[in-house]
Every structure is written in structure tokens, then in C-alpha cells.
Design goal:
187 residues; alpha+beta; Alpha-Beta Plaits; four-stranded antiparallel β-sheet; 5 helices
Amino acid sequence: MIREVREGRPAPAMTSIARITIACPDRTGLIAEIAGCLFELGANLGDASFAVLGAAAEFVAVAELPAGLGMRAVEERLRGLAVLKGAEIEVKPFTLSPVHGPSGQVTHRIAVSGADRPGLIARLCEVFAEFEANVVRLDSERVPGSKGDSYVARFAVSLPPARAGACLATVSNTAEGLQLTCRVEPA
């Protein structure tokens, strides 16, 4: 960059990285409206997540904003979308790396299901921590059924290769001890 300035060319404009968080009632077309608005603004989405949480929805993303586009302008434009009327919207600087490191690489997907058990998420996450596994993504839901509700917890994890076998066996044994089924898939 210094060389370009010395040769009489302007330095390239700086982009900024933002964390965009939106919470609102769930609606059809919500992601399309949000992503379309961000695209029109020139934002480049990085890691993003969307979930329906009860009757609510939550969208979280890290995005690179083009030079000259402020975070306040992004927030105001999102607030102007009819589908986001009354939504909680926050656009803030993201000061960490927008690209995850090795512990963010998913090595296995694990689904545990059955009757709801209080403390299930805590117990399984304690196992992951014991084996130095990183939970990259967690999704859980209560699923209504004719014979009562069931519960499904899905984990995308990064397991250290040397400890993967022991960790997966312990997760399976923990699920079995709680009378739950456990399904594991390599990523």
C-alpha cells in the first residue's frame, strides 16, 4: 500500500467487517429479504447462521462491508425492510478474524434424539470439553409427536484426531445411559 501512494496512485479504500444480528418473529422469505438487502448494499457475507427459535427467528452473520458503507447505514437499511418491522437489529464491528481457524473445521456431525432429558446439552458438551473437542454448531429442538414430544440435539464438532474415537464412544455411551439414540457421521 505504501508503494502505491509513493507512485502517485491512491491507496485502496479500506473495507470493514461487521457482525449483523437480527431477531424477529419467523416469517416466510425472511432470509431472502435480509440477504437480498445486504447484497444490494454490496456486503459480502461470510459465516452466517439462521434458526427458528420457537415462534422467533434469529439471523447472525459476519459480513465484509465495502469502503464507504457504514454500519449505521446497514442497520438503517435493514430496519427499513417491512419484513423486519419491530425486529431487534444490531450491526457492530467484528474485531476477530472473519475466517475461522482449524478448530472451526467440522470433522463430525452427531445427532442425539429421544425423550427430553434435563441437562442433556450440558452433559454432552462436558464430554466434548473433556476430549478437547470444539462445538462448531449446535442445533436442538423439541419435536411434537403423537406419542409425546421428543428432543433432537445436533452437534457439528471439530474433534482432535488422536482423541476422536474415545470422544465419540463416550458421547454414545452418555446418550445410551440417558436412553437416547446417537448417530455419528464424519464430515
